[in-house]
Amino acid sequence: MDIVVCIKQVPDVPNIRIDEHRMTIIREGVESIINPLDCVALEAAVDLRERQGGRITVLSMGPPQSEEALREALAFGADQAILLTDPAFGGADTLATSHVLATAISMLKPFPDLVLCGRQTIDSDTGHVGPQIAEELDLPQVCGVNEIDLQGDSLVVKRLYDGFLDTFRVNTPALLTVSQELSSPHHIPLADLERAFSDREIIRWAMKDLNLKPEEVGLGGSATRAWKLHKAAPKRRGEVVTGSPQSLVEHLIRKLEALSILDEESGNE
Amino acid sequence: MKKVEMNSPSKGIWVFGDYRHYFQNRVTLQLIAKAKTLAQRLGAEVTVVVLGEEVHQYAMEYVAHGADVVMVVDHPSLKNFQVETYSRLVATLVEDYRPEVFLAGATPFGREFFPRLAKRLKTGLSTDCIALEVDAETQLLLQTTPAFGGDLLAEVITQNHRPQMATVHPGVFEERIHDSRPVGRIIYPEVDIHPDERVQLVCSRPEQSKKGYLENAAVVIVGGRGIGSGEQFQSLFDLAELLQGEVGATRPAVDAGLTGEDRLLGQTGKSVKPRLLITIGTSGALQYTTGIQGSETIIAINRDAQAPIFKIADLGLVGDAHSILTLLVEKLRKRL
Ligand SMILES: Cc1cc2nc3c(=O)[nH]c(=O)nc-3n(C[C@H](O)[C@H](O)[C@H](O)COP(=O)(O)OP(=O)(O)OC[C@H]3O[C@@H](n4cnc5c(N)ncnc54)[C@H](O)[C@@H]3O)c2cc1C
Ligand SMILES: Cc1cc2nc3c(=O)[nH]c(=O)nc-3n(C[C@H](O)[C@H](O)[C@H](O)COP(=O)(O)OP(=O)(O)OC[C@H]3O[C@@H](n4cnc5c(N)ncnc54)[C@H](O)[C@@H]3O)c2cc1C
């Protein structure tokens, strides 16, 4: 089973700071990591390869330094790594991002049996890219899976969704996005990491290698502009009340009724 | 990339009718209400698109909640909300009617379906919006979404592509009350349905396994260091049971052995997004609050009026955890 895992290099979000003056993100000094759910996907791919054989290709679109993320993925167990990098790819929304990724996947020979993505990233967190690659490649999709089993030519996958545990049978080739519960990424031995950074090769494809035009990629291929950043106002600043325990509890019960957590009480107690 | 003609005459605002778990999932009704105010600014009509089997009752409900038009496709093969089948079908409707704006709730389904649909239509999409406005000058939809873990907000616009699509966080807009004399109409467009056989739903059952009990709870009661003893902590379970919720804990409560690690919330524990979270005797450390920020409503109880937890609470009660809890459990028991 040939598997493609899409990985995105992201800043370690809890540590980013904001330039309050210019309303931009200060990335300097913030470590870059592989988007955590992409590691979960990679672990699942390694597990499937152990059971089924096949090759794992990791794919990332990003600036040249995304190479580090790909090398880490090689150390993790991927067989080959492809970096999609070109100045023209900058400023892409998910429409343009998924177009570049889908184009690269369609050039792989043989076409993969399975494409795995994270359900969403920790930086921009749209969760669009998986379903949009699936649409472009006309693949069936299931998002947020927490279990993958193989049964002949099809996959049996589970996911927790709106309070229901759904089980699907999906024909391959297919695209799945993964949730946290699917796997626990293993620790990478330091020796493997060192080897991945010294001996392994990264394939690089730019716009022309993918036969794409400027108006299809980056800013030009995007439909949205994420254009102004604001500091989020403190999300809520509700009232803070003091008083006797009785009055506080009454206040609380009224709130529960207003939220329809409790039914309004009709009569007296 | 294909662009839909911008000067198309109809200026429809569409809402995707997600009627599953109708009484819990109110986001479609909230969107109809919001769409009505946007429609006034744009001189547009609000259309709700409803797909499924025997969905007439929902169509009527949407009319009663203010929809100008409800577009219904009723067919047995549309019974399950299936992304591939739905995107293909809805894309043809969009191409026929060319709405300006198309909104859906940011439910797990909405977040899986809308990206695929937007891609098929080659248009822009923003996700999990917490505000929507019409720009007075350009008439474009200004879509505000949380970014970078919620500390920043990004304003997103779709300039030249149509429809302008967005999914919206449940609970940010308020639904309208039932209209006693609704005037909306229900239409049944002619469409071809092509069920996608490549994904088959084998079974679907309410999740009861241990794994997601906290993450899926509609109500979560959290105890922190301020709860004090194990006996006190037990009363959190009483409260949770009365409100049909689950119990979570902060790090000190777990470390003190008041409950298991599986109930830990925060950076090193679980993240929850219940409809209601009541947090008791917790100071509001960032490592904890990152795990609860997605909650729709937060009520905090703390004896210290300066506790940071009140900054993120919708309602704060300053008082002793023990007395409030005891009294609350007592009152709720009486109501049963
Ligand atoms: C503040 C801000 C707001 C934004 N708002 C929007 C918006 O509303 N609409 C919009 O269309 N775009 C938006 N963008 C642009 C969007 O973030 C980029 O297109 C980004 O490249 C992909 O989106 P994501 O990180 O949300 O990916 P997601 O869709 O959350 O990613 C899911 C999975 O797809 C794969 N993946 C994603 N990106 C890559 C990649 N570059 N290489 C390899 N695999 C990848 C990974 O497996 C990942 O886990 C915004 C960007 C910013 C900075
Ligand atoms: C790297 C790192 C990761 C961490 N990850 C997590 C995590 O995942 N989850 C987590 O929870 N913590 C985590 N922590 C710990 C976190 O920083 C806080 O120490 C912790 O959340 C505090 O828990 P607390 O609010 O219960 O206790 P405290 O901070 O001690 O607060 C107790 C509160 O109870 C109030 N109180 C006391 N008595 C009463 C009473 N009788 N009635 C009413 N109120 C009362 C006090 O006024 C006080 O505000 C992490 C810390 C680090 C450094």
Give the CA-CA distance, first to last residue of chain B. Answer: 60 Å
Overall pLDDT of chain B, averaged? 90
CATH class of the largest domain in chain B: Alpha Beta
Overall morphology of chain B? elongated
Which percent band covers the strand fraction of chain B?
25-35%
Number of domains of chain A: 2
How many structurally independent domains of chain B? 2
For the record, what CATH class of the largest domain in chain A applies? Alpha Beta
Mean pLDDT of chain A: 91
Q: Helix coverage percent of residues of chain B?
A: 25-40%
**Second CATH tier, the architecture of the largest domain in chain B:** 3-Layer(aba) Sandwich
Outline the low-pLDDT stretches of chain B.
1-9
The largest contact between protein chains, plus residue counts on each side, is: A-B, 83 and 89 residues
The total of beta strands of chain A comes to: 15
- Which strand order does the major sheet of chain B show? 5-9-4-1-2-3-10
| Helicity range of chain A | 25-40%
Q: What is the overall number of helices of chain B?
A: 8
Radius of gyration of chain A: 23 Å
- SS class of chain B: alpha/beta
How would you describe this structure to a colleague?
The complex is a heterodimer of chains A (269) and B (336). Chain A is α/β, with parallel strands linked by helices and 269 residues long. Chain A has two domains: 2-216, HUPs (Rossmann fold, 3-Layer(aba) Sandwich); 232-269. Chain A has six helices and 15 strands. Chain A has helices spanning 36-52, 67-76, 94-106, 129-136, 190-198, 245-258; strands at 3-6, 9-11, 17-19, 24-26, 32-34, 56-61, 80-84, 114-118, 141-151, 154-161, 164-171, 174-178, 203-205, 224-231, 239-241. In chain A, the strands form three sheets. A nine-stranded mixed beta sheet of chain A has the order 11-10-9-12-8-1-6-7-13, sandwiched between helices. In chain A, strands 2-5 form a two-stranded antiparallel sheet. Chain A is globular and about 70 Å long. The N and C termini of chain A lie far apart (66 Å). Chain B has 336 residues and is an alpha/beta fold. Chain B has two domains: 9-187, HUPs (Rossmann fold); 219-335, Rossmann fold (3-Layer(aba) Sandwich). Chain B is built from eight helices and 16 strands. A seven-stranded parallel beta sheet of chain B has the order 5-9-4-1-2-3-10, sandwiched between helices. In chain B, strands 13-12-14-15-16 form a five-stranded parallel beta sheet. A three-stranded antiparallel beta sheet of chain B has the order 6-7-8. In chain B, helix 1 (27-42) links the parallel strand 1 and strand 2 (46-52). In chain B, helix 5 (230-242) runs parallel beside helix 8 (321-335). The N and C termini of chain B lie far apart (60 Å). The interface between A and B is large, with 83 and 89 residues. Bound molecules: flavin-adenine dinucleotide (FAD) (2 copies). One flavin-adenine dinucleotide sits between chains A (6-8, 35, 37-38, 59-62, 92-95, 97, 101, 117-118, 120-121, 123-130, 224, 226) and B (124-127, 145, 147, 154, 156).
